[in-house]
Amino acid sequence: MARPEGDERSDEALRIDLEAVREKYRQERDKRTAGRTYQFARGEFSRYAHDPYTEPRQREPLRDEVDVAVVGAGIGGLLTGARLRQETGLDRIRLIDEAGDVGGTWYWNRFPGVRCDVESYIYMPLLEELGTIPTEKYATGPEILAHLKRIAREYDLYRDALFQTVVTELRWDEAAGRWLVSTDRGDLIRARYVAMSIGLMHRPKLPGLPGLETFAGHSFHTSRWDFDYTGGDSTGGLTRLKDKTVGVIGTGSTTIQIAPHLAEWAERLFLFQRTPAAVDVRGNRPTPPDWAQSLEPGWQQRRMENFHALTSGVPQDEDLVQDRWTQTTAKLAAAILPTGDAGGDPRQRALAAERADFLKMEELRARVDSVVADPATAAALKPYYRLYCKRPCFHDGYLQTFNRPNVTLVDTQGRGVQRLTPAGVVANGREYPLDCLIFATGYEHEFAVPYTVRAGYDIIGRDGVRLSQKWADGARTLHGLQVNGFPNCFILSKVQAGRHVNIAYMLGEQTRHLAYIVGCVEQRGHRVVEACESAEKEWVEEILRLAANDLDFLENCTPGLYNNEGDPKGMPLLNSSYGGGSVQFVNILRRWRAAGDLAGLELR
Ligand code: NAP
After folding, report:
1. Which residue from 33, 111, 391 has its CB within 8 A of the most atoms of ligand 1, so it is best to mutate?
2. Which of 50, 390, 452, 534 could form a disulfide linkage to 468, CB 3.0–4.6 angstroms apart?
3. Bridge partner list, 529
4. Can you tell me which atom of ligand 1 is nearest the CA of 252?
5. Rounded distance, CA 219 to CA 227, Å?
6. Distance separating alpha carbons of residues 126 and 77, to the nearest angstrom
7. pLDDT value of position 9
8. CB neighbour list of residue 275: distance below 8 Å, 6 or more residues apart
9. Atom of ligand 1 nearest to the CA of 427
10. Mean predicted confidence (pLDDT) in 132-161
C-alpha cells in the first residue's frame, strides 16, 4: 500500500488488511441484528421506574405564577436556573422534577461504583463560581450529586422548586402571554417562559423478553438500585448479597461499574452478555492538594474548551485533561466525526481513521488478554466493532472481575438472553436459576423515541398546535432550542443541537444561549419571543444536509443505542444532532449572539 504524502502513520498501520477487518466486524454485527426488542418500564412494568430513594411527600395543589418553569432539575435545569438568575434578574424560577430532589441522572443513578468517566474538573458545572475542586479526577456519583445540590442552594433554586411532581401538560395562552403548566399534583402554574431539560436517557428500559413478568425472584433496574435488598450504598458494601445468586443482563457502561462490587459480595454472579464493551484504562487519581492554587481565573472554561476541541478533532497546543478520551479520541475524531475542522482529503482521512480505529481496538482486545486468565472468557470479552459504534468505556477493575471463581460470563454470541422463567434466565438453551436479576439494559433513546413520549406530556403551542403533531415525523427547531409556534419555550437536548461526550459542557453552552435570548427579551421590553418559520426551515435543511454524513458509519456498526439497534435509517433524520460537529455548533451560537440582531427570532 503506497504511503500518501505527509502520512506519518507506522508501517504496521499501513499493512492492515482493512477488507478482512471489515468482514470480521460485519460477521459480528450480523450475529446481532435479529430480534432486538425492548420493553419500556411503563404500564405493567412501571414499578421498575419507581423512586426507591425518597418517601412520597404530600402537599396541596398550587395555583400561582412564576417567571420561568423549568421541567427537569438535572444539570440542564440547574444551569438554566443559575444562568437566568444571574444574567436576567428574573426572580421566580421554578424547577419541576418527578425525582425527590435535584440531580437528574445523578439522583437516579446511585448504583455501587457509580462515577462519571468524564473528568470531574470539566464535567461538574460552575466549579469556579462555587469555589470548589472535586476530590478526584473522576468523582463519585455522591460527590457529583452533592455538588448539584449545592448549585441549587447557591442560586436559590430550592425556594420555588417542586419535586415528586410530574408535568402532565404545557399549554400556551396567547391572550395572556403565559404558559399554563399542569401537573399530576393538581397544580396549575402560570409561567412567562418554559424551559425543558428532561434528560437524554431518563426512562429505563428492560429487555423485551418472553416471560419477563414471570420471574419470581427479586429484580430491579440499575437506575433504581434497591439497597434495601442488596445492602450497602454507592461505594459498595453489598452485604446482603453474600448468600445470593445474582444475574445481570447487559454489559454496557453501567455494568462495568457495578460488576466489581457485585462480584465482591454475591455468592455467585452471572453476567449475561450480548455484545462486549470496549473497556479502556480509566486512571483515576486524587486531586493533588496544591492543584487548586495553581489555577488561573477562567481555568474551568478553558479546560472544557480544550477537551471539547481535542475530542472533536481540532488540534490544540496542549492537552490539559490528558486522559484516554483526549489521547484516543482526539486522534480518531478528526477523521471519524464529520467536524469539518481537521481538513484533508476526506477519503484518505476516512481510511486513516479506520486504520487508527483498528489499532486502538486491537490494543483494547490485547488488554483483555493481558488481564483475563481464562482464554475462552477472554476471547468472549473482546469487542469487534469500531470504537464509536458504542459508548467507549473506562475502568480498571471490570475485566479483573472475570478472574474470580464466583463470576461467570454467559456469552450469548450476540443472540442475547432468550427468556425469563419464574426461576431465572434462559440463555444459550440453559436455565440459570437466580435470586436476584439486575437489568443493566439502558434507557429509551432520544433519537428514536418521540420527545413527547419520553417527556410523558404534550406541549400545546400557539393556535392549539401540539408538539407531538408538529414533530410527528421528527423534530423541527431553530438551533435545537426553539420551535416556531411555541413562544417563550426552550428545549435543551442533543436533537438538532451539538452532541458531545461532555454533556455538561454542551448544556453550559446551550443555557448561556437561552439566558442571552431571555435577557434580550427582558431588556428590550418585549413579552414574547418565538423562532420564525423561515429560520426554523433553514436550520432544519442544514440538519438534514449534514445528517447523511453519519449514515454509512452507523450502518456498518454493531447494533446499539447509537444506530437504532442496527436500523439507523429507521431513526428520523430530523432527530439527528447537528452534523457539522459540536465545535462548529458552539461557534454558530457564539457568532449568532455576537451579531446581536436576534436573527430568525420574532419579538412581540
Ligand atoms: P446501555 O449502554 O444501553 O447498555 C445496555 C446493555 O444491555 C447492552 O450491553 C445491551 O447489549 C444489553 N442488552 C439489552 N438487551 C439484552 C438482552 N436481551 N440480552 C443480553 N443483553 C442485553 O446501558 P447502560 O450501560 O446503562 O448505559 C447507558 C448510558 O448511560 C451510556 O451510553 C452512557 O451514556 C451513560 N453512562 C455513563 C456513565 C459515565 O460514567 N459517564 C456511566 C454509566 C452510564 P448490546 O450491547 O448487544 O445492545
Report:
1. 391
2. 452
3. 603
4. 25
5. 12
6. 13
7. 52
8. 32, 251, 383, 385, 390, 414, 558, 559, 560
9. 19
10. 98
Q: Which CATH class is domain 63-202+445-537+581-603?
A: alpha beta
Euclidean distance between CA atoms 361 and 25, whole angstroms: 11
Distance, in Å, from the CA atom of 355 to the CA atom of 21, rounded to the nearest integer, reads: 9
Kindly give the interhelix angle for 299-310 and 503-523, rounded to the nearest 10 degrees: 120
Residue carrying the nine cell digits 405564577: 65
Residue 171 CA, ligand 1 centroid: distance in Å: 35
Spatial separation of the C-alpha atoms in residues 75 and 67, rounded to whole Å? 20
pLDDT tens for residues 18-64?
A: 999 999 999 999 999 877 788 989 899 999 999 999 999 999 999 99
Give the cell for residue 281: 484504562
Helices (H), 443-502: 451-455, 467-470
Q: Calculate how far, in angstroms, residue 186's C-alpha sits from the geometric centre of ligand 1.
A: 36
Are 516 and 593 a contacting pair, CB within 8 Å?
yes
Q: What is the pLDDT of residue 3?
A: 46
Mention every residue, 6+ apart, whose C-beta is less than 8 A from residue 409: 271, 273, 377, 380, 381, 402
| H or E element at residue 557 | none
DSSP code string of 429-449: TEEEE-SEEEE---B--TTTS
Largest CA distance in the chain: 75
What does residue 339 show for φ and ψ, rounded to 5 degrees? -70, -25
Of 446, 6, 540, nearest to 205 by C-alpha is 446
**Is residue 334 very low, low, confident or very high in pLDDT (cuts 50, 70, 90)?**
low
Instruction: Read off the pLDDT of residues 269-313 as tens digits, 9 standing for 90 and up.
Output: 999 999 999 999 999 999 999 999 999 999 999 999 999 999 988
CATH 3.50.50.60 domain locations along the chain: 63-202+445-537+581-603, 205-282+365-439
User: Nine-digit cell at 32?
Assistant: 446481532
Distance 180 CA to ligand 1 centre (A): 37
523: three-class secondary structure by DSSP: helix
Report the nearest atom of ligand 1 relative to the CA of 559.
48
Query: What is the per-residue pLDDT across 456-467, written as a single tens digit (0 to 9) for each?
Result: 999 999 999 999
Distance CA 602, CA 604 (A): 7
